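# nightly structure sweep
# worker-07 picked up a monomer target from the shared queue
# config: single-sequence mode, recycle default, output format = C-alpha cells
# input follows
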Amino acid sequence: MRYLPHTDEDIRNMFDAIGVKDFEELFRTVPESCRYDKEMALPAPKTEWDLNKYMAEIRSMMKVSSEHSVLIGAGRYQHHIPSSIPYIMGRSEFLTAYTPYQPEMAQGTLQGLFEYQTLTARLLGVDVANASMYDGASALAEAMLMGLRIAKKKKRVAMSSAIHPHFREVVRTYLQPTEFEIIELPFLEDGRTDLSSLAGEKDLAAVALQSPNFFGVIEEMEQAAEAIHQAGALFVASFSEPMAFGLLKNPGSAGADIVCGEGQSFGMPKSFGGPGLGMFGCKQKYVRNLPGRLVGETTDIEGNRGYVLTLATREQHIRREKATSNICSNQGICTLTAAMYMASLGGTGLKKLARLNYDKSEYLKQGLKDAGATVCFSAPTFNEFVVEFKDDYGPVQKRLMEQKIVAGVSLAKYYPGFDNRYLFCVTETASKEVLDTVISEVQK
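# output follows
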C-alpha cells in the first residue's frame, strides 16, 4: 500500500460530496474563540544541506553521543543492531502505521506479528504470546490486572521490591484508583526476593518477580513458583533484559503462569527512553484473559494460507466491561523489529551473544572488586551488578565522562541507604579497553 497526500482535485471532490465549498465552511461549527487566527511561529524553510547542518549542530550539544561507551542498563540496554534489521524494517510491507483490522489489506503486517508471537512464545517458554504491549512497565501492570481477573474475588497482589522501580510505579498508577491492594516483598542480602511472608497469605491473586531483577540478580524461579503456587496465587514473571534467556532457563519452563517484560534489547535503539516493546505471554488456559491482540493463521476460500486477528478483546471490539484491556496500539513497528532480530540471531546466536554479555560483565565485576569496590549481592547476575565504593565515586565518574565513558547509575534515589551504591551494565558493545579504563580509574 502507498500513502499519498490528497491533490487539490481530491479535496474539491470531497467538498462537493459533503456540500461545502472550502475549509472555512468545513470548520464553521468550531467557535471563533477556539480558533488560532495568527500565523504559525515557524522558521523559514531550509535546504537539505542546511537542515543536515542544523541537525548536526543539535547533535553536538548532546552530553552522550554515539562515540561514547555506555555502561548503564537499568531497563535500557546498549546492544549492537545488525544492519539487516533497519533495512528489512524499512520495506513498505512492514513500515506502516496501519492497524491490521482488515486482513486483505495487511497480510505482511499480520504475518510478521504471527512470526513474532511464535518466536516470543519459544523464547519465554509460554503457550501463547500476544502481538505486544506498549512497554515492559505497562505489560507488568496489565499482567497484574489479568491475575486479578482470573482470581475474580481476590483483591490483593504482591510484587518484589527488586523489580525495576519504574515498573512498580506504573503498577501502582494502574491500581491506585481501584479497590485492589499492592504488597511489596523485600529482598534478601544476596539480592534475591524474600518470599517467606507468602506462607501466611490467603488472598493473593498474583505475585510478580523480575529475573534478572533490577540489581541484575538472577532469581531462583522454580523455588519461587512453588512458593507462590502454594500460596494460591498466579506467578507473574517480569524482565527488562530478554537477552538473558539466551543463557538462562526461561520463565515459562520454570513455572511462571504469565510472563511479561521489555523487549527493547531486540533491535531497538535506546532513543531517549522510547519507544519500547512490551512482550507478553501466558499459559493456554488463560488465553481468554490475555490483553492486547492475538494473530492467528487460517486459510482463505481457495485454500491459501492467510493471517487474521483471532483475539482482540478490547474496548473497540466488545462491551467495555468485558474488555481485557484498553490497549489501542500493538507497537507494530517495534514488534516486527524484535521478530527480525530474533530470527536473525536464531537460538544459537542468541545463546552466544548472551554468553558474551555475561562474560564481559563478570570481567568488570571482578576488576572493580580487585580495585577495592564491594560487590553488594552474592547471588549470580547476568549483565548487570551493584557495587559499593569506599570513597565518593562522583570524581571517578566525571573523569570517565571526559574519556567518553558513561559508567554506573546511582541507586540512592531508588533505594534508601544505597548512597554510594552503583548499578553497572556491560553488553557486547563494551570493549576490553573500555572496561580496563574503568577499573584503572577506580584504582587511582
